[in-house]
Amino acid sequence: MTELIPVEIVYAEPGRVWRQELQIPTGSSVQHALSVLDHRLFPEGLQVSEDFLAVYGRRVRFGDSLHAHDRIELLRPLTRDPKDTRRLRAADNPLKKPAR
To answer: What are the φ and ψ backbone dihedral angles of 61, each rounded to 5 degrees?
Structure first.
């Protein structure tokens, strides 16, 4: 009998998180976990791409093996360059220089 391990698949947008917990055979790949995913539990039209997958924030590929309690994260492309976002925040709130 094959031992099953728990894994979780999550997708997040601002203000909303979708998740599904799965029991998959030990040694299963990311691709196998995604193949048994119930797509009805996630946003309609969600496209899963190997370029936008992570396990606990570390990039993974379809062929990578999973371990018990791994969380597969379905990522979204960035809408804005993080450096530009930081520059805009800094411009709105400049640091005050100490008086001499």
So the answer is: -115, 165
Tell me the whole-structure pTM to 2 decimals.
0.77
Contact 6, 68 (CB under 8 A): yes
pLDDT of residue 78: 79
**Residues sharing a CB contact under 8 Å with residue 26, sequence separation 6 or more, in sequence order:** 2, 3, 4, 5, 68
Q: Under a CB-based contact definition with an 8 Å cutoff, are residues 7 and 20 in contact?
A: no
Can you tell me the distance from the alpha carbon of 79 to that of 77, in angstroms, rounded to the nearest whole number? 6
In order of their start, the domains of the chain are 4-92 (3.10.20.30)
